[in-house]
Amino acid sequence: MEFNCEKKELQTGVSMIEKIVSTRSTLPIIGNLLFEAQKNSIKISANNLEIGMELSIKATVSKEGSALLPAKTLSGIVSKLPETKIGFKLGENSTIKINYDQSHFNLHALPADEFPALNKVKEGKTFNISPETLHSMIKQTIFAVSGSEEKYVLTGVLLEAGKSSQAGDQTNVRLVATDGYRLAKRGEKIELKSDPGISVIVPAKALSELAKIIDGRDKGEVKIHVSNEQISFRYDDVYLVSRLIQGQFPDYRQVIPKKSATKITLSASEMLRAAERAAVIAAGSANVSAFEVRGGKLYITANTPDVGSVTEVIAADVKGVEKARVSFNIRLITDVLNVIDAEMVTLELGEGLSPGVIKPEGQTEYLYIVMPIRTQEAA
Amino acid sequence: MTIKLLPDDLINKIAAGEVIERPASVVKELVENSLDAGATRVMVEVQEAGKKLISVADNGSGMTEAETKLALQRHSTSKITSADDLFAIKTLGFRGEALPSIASVAKMELAPNPAGQGLTAEVKTLFYNTPARKKFLKSNATEMGHIGDIIAKYALARPAVAFRLTADGKVLLNSPGTGNLLDAVLAVYGPELTRELVPVDHPFRSGRVHGLISRPTISRLDKNYETFFVNGRYVKNFLLNRALEEAYRTLIPNGRYPVAILFVEIDPAQVDVNVHPTKREVKFADNTMVMQAVREAVQVALEVTGKDMGADAGIDAGGEMVEIGSNDQLPISGFETGLQTLITASNSESTELSVDPAQPLTPIYQLMPTYIVATDGRELVLIDQHAAHERTLYDQLSGKKTAGASQILLVPETIELSVGETLALMSNLDNLKCFGFEIAEFGSNSFIVRAVPAVSAKIPAKQLLHDIVTELLEEGGSTQLEVKKENIRKLVACHSAIKAGERLTPLEMAGLIRALFLTENPLTCPHGRPTMIRISQAELTKMFGR
Ligand SMILES: Nc1ncnc2c1ncn2[C@@H]1O[C@H](COP(=O)(O)OP(=O)(O)OP(=O)(O)O)[C@@H](O)[C@H]1O
Ligand SMILES: [Mg+2]
Ligand SMILES: [Zn+2]
Question: Strand (E) positions, A295-375?
Fold first, then answer.
């Protein structure tokens, strides 16, 4: 194997793929990147046995071939190389010579055939979606997954593609995530040639890697393929494949409140800033903050003995009845306000201890449900 | 009805049903034969996850052409001759059943090495004549996983034997056969894990327990990393697992398991291996003795490392550490890790460190990740993240406002308990409700959870309640199940707190420190253990002999 390529190309490729390389591995071989030189490009692959990735970079290949290079070492070197042409040459006794300007590195490489090949999704259901849409869908849901491995299905995000069985839901692709205390659902109506009928749980890690790849990209489409055990995403030259989480995702349709008693509309950024200030005080009391709707305003209050208290007042457009105090974990509120793009949000509250619902104003695609906290004052 | 003697080939097929379940069973039987023949090199090659070809080549004692014929006959074995021998089995095989069983469900060839040393066994088209069994085979990936598992277990069991596993031309595992268990572990599990292991060596009345176990700083979500060998034979025995886990009880989070490669050497007369057709199960004459031996062996080893990480940390840490091979044997990945440290070290050079005057202590680093290394600019402070968080939650649970605050669940969860657990839960229901649990009975021994304490909202509800009930049962014993309200508060705080080993962001560390300093007694956790250790400048000066 022998080729040369621009440092920039190499760095973009390596830094994108390096993140999925596992350092905590029972199989040291997967700490490597597979380089395959063919025609005018280099294919780089990584595989941590849960997620695999493959991408191509432009290069001038003088001798086709392949080799395994240690990912961490390589990325450490590449980021420090000068902005110039970088040459790679596989020599005898499996050393790779990396040369640039008048200097060079020698790295120990491993034979390529020891690398576990990516298990690609060959058959299954498929659909395409724009990278921008998908990115925003991921961003607005992924934060709500459970951080605890004990509740394994909740460490993933439910992906549904196809008609919704829920009345009034016009979307045909949906992502849903929950940790058991709140739930984020983002739908979208896209063009689908046929109804793919997909309902699978995708590990959050795979979606967060994908989000990095498509961040800021607006051209072309992401091609998604789903089999019984795996899901793959292809965008441009990048291919990402992940295993799916097997199990039963909670039925989110059941928990979406059908009606609300109070509906208020207010500035998203004002509410976020108020909530963040309240969070400073609430941190000392299990993040408990009280919400109250009175006289055309939303009051958010928190207090911690020996620290102090806070009362935030935000102007709001109130529909329905005024609402007596109901408490929420303020962190669950700031979480969602951080990912809503709209200028105005609506907050819907039911009677007594029913869940709160937050939506961007005038949009039906996004929905966030947060469960209240019963405090002794409220009881 | 006529009763007939079954023809031989039918008997073999029936036996095969028990011994040969899948390609991995063939691999296991052939490898065991190689080991029994004294091989020091075993090369396993499979195609299509063993469905097409399994070949095992060894350098053991081998056979003559004539012996290969005899070996295929049922109950022909060179390993035992009388019933008495059955009670003192030292070899892995002894029934003389494996080869005939394999030969009855596949095309098998035994090829003695012409040079006289070693044998190559080749098994092709497994289950060609038993389509039902063939249909039950899983995907190639799954079947390959089982094969990999078997070889990994034997590579660990016999560090002096070099194993190589090749699948469709790719080398999946290659152990060096140096005789050093650490080298074998390195080949199977890689350097990260190997570094976290400490040695065990403990004699007991009828034998010895030795091997490697993980430091409590790491744990796994399943028991697959708990490996036991009894007299060199890989076994599954839940009593051994339990003894091991008991020794780790308070050291690693609930529901997580240690890594262990443990060898129990015991008088062969004290164990029965002939209880299951695949020989994977064993029965001990004296369970209690063996369990106690394992528990003690692990406890002693952990105590040594515990001391190592405690007061003397950083000063004499090298003492009991496991050394991973000698330098010139270090595999490529070891070199890589070394280089990596250099690279990261130079990367971080540019970051300036400064002490935040608005913080009681500025966090610098999360160690192991269990302790927060922090400073106020004068002293070096180590904070135990679990103890610190436990203290802040405990105080919040005492506060008027948050004491009984309940975070309601999106979907109520049902939890099923044993009879004892049910009793323990019922006896403490009122107190649990005081701290925010909303629990109702839901049929016999089953409960529905609608809300958890507001301080616990990061933990899955079921896990939290289960953990607490398990402890209630232990604490109360059988005579008095009800524990004091104060104890419930401690339990809720403990099980809702961040655990050792959980990674924190710098912001989370800073937040935790701030919250800790708001509590009534930031220096100890509710159980009275220290939350932090301070090392003053004077102490540092003394330690460095300046
Ligand atoms: N690789 C080998 N090298 C030398 N001799 C072998 C080898 N494999 C098998 N044999 C001989 O063939 C005999 C039959 O093997 P087989 O596996 O059928 O029975 P076993 O190992 O005695 O008992 P078990 O069926 O319980 O494994 C063995 O006892 C041994 O003498
Ligand atoms: Mg045998
Ligand atoms: Zn504790």
Answer: 297-304, 308-315, 317-320, 323-329, 344-349, 356-360, 366-370, 373-374
| DSSP state letters, B261-300 | EEEEEE-GGGEE-TTSTTS---EES-HHHHHHHHHHHHHH
Question: Would you say residue B217 has pLDDT above 90?
Answer: no
Residues that place a CB less than 5 A from ion ligand 2: B 33, 93, 98
- In this structure, the residue with its CA closest to atom 1 of ligand 1 is B34
Q: Which two tokens stand for residue B39?
A: 């091989």
Q: Give the predicted TM-score (pTM) of the model.
A: 0.59
Query: Does the Cβ of B118 fall within 6 Å of ligand 1?
Result: no
CA–CA distance, A184 with A200 (Å, rounded to integer): 16
Distance between CA atoms of residues B423 and B444, nearest Å: 11
Ligand 2 centroid distance, CA of B94 (Å): 7
Say whether residue A364 is in contact with chain B using an 8 A CB cutoff. no
> Residue B177 region, left (φ>0) first, then alpha (ψ -120 to 50), else beta?
left
Neighbours of A111 (CB within 10 A): 12
For residue B369, give the amino acid letter: P
Residues of chain B contacting residue A305, judged by C-beta atoms under 8 Å apart: 399-401
- With helix as H, strand as E and coil as C, how does B323-336 read? CCCCHHHCCHHHHH
Chain B positions touching A376 (Cβ under 8 A) are: 400-401, 403-405
Residue A206 scores a pLDDT above 50: yes
Q: Cα–Cα distance between B309 and B303 in angstroms, integer?
A: 10
Cβ distance A125 to A226 under 8 Å?
Answer: yes
CA-to-CA dists, residue B531 to A56, B387, B392, B467, B534, angstroms: 51, 5, 11, 22, 10
Q: Determine whether the interchain pair A283/B221 forms a contact, defined as Cβ–Cβ distance below 8 Å.
A: no
Residue A245, SS3?
A: strand
- Burial B250-263, CB ≥16 within 10 A → b, else e: eebbbebbbbbbbb
Which whole number is the average pLDDT over A268-297?
93
Q: What is the pLDDT of residue B320?
A: 29
Residue B400 CB burial class (10 angstroms; 0-12, 13-18, ≥19): exposed
The verdict on a CB contact (< 8 Å) between B460 and A303 is no
By C-alpha distance, which of A179, A155, A187 is closest to A329? Answer: A179
The ipTM is: 0.82
Cα distance between residue B455 and residue B59, in whole Å:
62
* Residue A289 near chain B (CB below 8 Å): no
Distance from CA of B346 to the nearest CA of A (A): 10
Cα(B99) to centroid(ligand 1), Å: 7
What's the DSSP call for residue B351? P
